[in-house]
Design a protein that fits this description.
Length: about 550
């Protein structure tokens, strides 16, 4: 792999020119407390991820406590995701206008009381409104964190900030089920919301100390340019909502889906038309026309898709086929969640001494190996059988995500994204949009894929299960004999046997669908590795950043 990734050597003059421009682009108000700043950024990313994941895994308990139907409750997580999508590009813009520190502190200050009030919502409408506010506030943490790492940290600390950032996101993604199970068993489902209110003040303190205040500027331009961001953010939010609800509403057969899709396309076309007539000084689309920038957006989307192997496939199998409760499922995913911090920091140390593309390829290769290991799944597998593959997955996800973020940051440094405010804003918003839509498109695709494959496998298995077949009769006789002691006569035992056989057919069909899902993830990783091979070698590496001046930790 390392041989394939080799490129012609980069000239020393190009390195010097990039490092000199990077040094000159650094602001004068670099963080004096980089450790606190890094912890605040990582905690913000973890809060945002945990907020959405706890809602997703705790939705059945919330639905039961509030007496909501399945269709009604499905809009709760959709509203949170749409709000997060809406604020993505907008928050980067606001951060450039008013400063990262101010926007983060204001959003965090609003999020705390909203999270406290969410469990006491009297009805669905109030709950949806509060979730939208929670999504808008917590959704600002992701994109502003990347912008902060680019602009306010001494560059030699950036790789460790990325390690903490990646570890926080990975831990939240895989640890939310265990945390929810702990709450349901010992506390209350309300803690799915109150966790955010409990942890966010700590993030606010770290940000207050770690991120230096920056003066507001260009307020007069904000009044003339905010409309373009509103159109774009609204269009993206509606498109996200349409994708999230598409499978439940049967896609184009639903008027609601068609209306959301048409409104999204209209708003996005309006954004393009407005852009052509009135170029926005805070957005520089041509800056994104870089080979590595475009390819890494695709790699980020692929990574979000392969995360579904632990977010959807394993929990769905253990819940549907093995009938496990959240605490049993969570114990399996903890094998991925717990090692994230040390693995991410080790990956950061490795990245300082090698071409950043090599750890990226190694990380994705380990993810592919874990998916192939899981593709040998059978309906007899239990939680313990996933442990070896989850350990491999922990290494793969941690190395891949940290390396991916490192490549993104190095691309920003190499292209002098710090040189102009609009370049930083455009760069951060671009990757945030890829991150959100990569995850949502992947989740929609995987949900539809599992449903379709289960139907196919049910049909194929059903071809071999007929009433007159002697093997079927033998299986029904065995099941009836086992059920007879607890049944109401022979007829009751026979009816129970038929129902149990139908359940076994469904379990086998769903197991086969999950196997297909793991194979699909493995193929996605293979395609992603091909894209990684197409990445050009960055002109500078993290080891070269030691020569860039910056304030040291106080």
């Amino acid at each position: 792999m390392s041989t394939i990734l080799q490129n012609p050597p980069i000239s020393d003059s190009l390195k010097v020119r990039i490092l000199t421009s990077l040094s000159g682009a650094l602001p004068g108000d670099l963080s004096l407390h980089p450790l606190m700043a890094m912890m605040g950024v990582a905690l913000g990313a973890m809060i945002s991820t945990m907020n959405s994941r706890l809602l997703a895994v705790g939705l059945p308990d919330i639905r039961g406590a509030m007496g909501l139907g399945f269709d009604q409750a499905s809009w709760i997580s959709t509203s949170l995701g749409m709000a997060t999508m809406f604020i993505g590009p907008f928050s980067v813009y606001l951060g450039g206008i008013f400063g990262w520190r101010k926007v983060l502190l204001i959003c965090a200050g609003i999020l705390v009381p909203v999270s406290i009030l969410l469990p006491f919502a009297p009805n669905l409408h109030v709950l949806l409104i509060l979730e939208v506010i929670a999504g808008i506030t917590s959704g600002s943490f992701y994109p502003l964190a990347l912008s902060f790492i680019l602009r306010n940290l001494p560059v030699r600390y950036a790789i460790f900030a990325l390690g903490l950032y990646a570890a926080g996101i990975d831990f939240s993604t895989n640890g939310a089920i265990s945390l929810h199970a702990l709450y349901v068993q010992h506390l209350s489902w309300r803690w799915d919301f109150w966790t955010t209110a409990l942890v966010t003040p700590l993030m606010m303190g770290l940000i207050y100390v770690g991120i230096p205040p920056s003066p507001s500027h260009a307020e007069k331009d904000f009044l003339s340019q905010w409309m373009g961001f509103l159109y774009a953010s609204s269009g993206l939010a509606l498109l996200y909502g349409a994708l999230d609800q598409g499978e439940r509403m049967d896609w184009l057969n639903s008027g609601t889906f068609v209306a959301m899709l048409c409104a999204a396309l209209l708003l996005l076309l309006t954004t393009v038309f407005r852009r052509l007539r009135m170029p926005n000084p805070f957005v520089d689309i041509p800056f994104l026309q870089q080979w590595n920038t475009i390819l890494m957006g695709a790699v980020l989307a692929c990574f979000r898709f392969v995360l579904l192997s632990t977010v959807i496939l394993i929990p769905q199998y253990l819940g549907v086929v093995r009938s496990h409760r959240p605490e049993q499922i969570g114990s399996t995913l903890l094998w991925v969640a717990l090692p994230q911090l040390p693995l991410a920091l080790l990956a950061a140390l490795w990245l300082r001494r090698t071409d950043t593309r090599l750890p990226l390829a190694v990380g994705f290769s380990l993810v592919a190996i874990a998916c192939i290991m899981n593709s040998h799944l059978s309906s007899a597998w239990d939680s313990i059988d996933f442990v070896p593959s989850q350990i491999v997955m922990a290494f793969g996800q941690s190395i891949a995500f940290t390396s991916l973020l490192a490549n993104i940051i190095m691309q920003a440094f190499s292209t002098n994204a710090l040189g102009k405010p609009q370049w930083v804003l455009t760069f951060s918003a671009y990757f945030h949009t890829w991150r959100i839509f990569g995850g949502e498109c992947g989740a929609s695709l995987m949900t539809h894929f599992l449903s379709s494959r289960e139907k196919l496998h049910s049909y194929m298995i059903g071809l071999h299960v007929s009433a007159g077949d002697w093997t079927v009769q033998q299986r029904l006789s065995m099941l009836s004999a086992g059920l007879s002691p607890n049944s109401n006569g022979a007829d009751g035992a026979s009816a129970g046997a038929v129902g149990l056989l139908a359940l076994q057919v469904r379990q086998q069909a769903y197991t086969q669908a999950v196997i297909d899902g793991f194979i699909l993830c493995a193929w996605c990783v293979f395609v992603c590795l091909l894209v990684v091979l197409l990445l050009k070698r960055p002109p500078i590496q993290y080891g070269d950043l030691e020569a860039v001046p910056g304030k040291s930790a106080a």
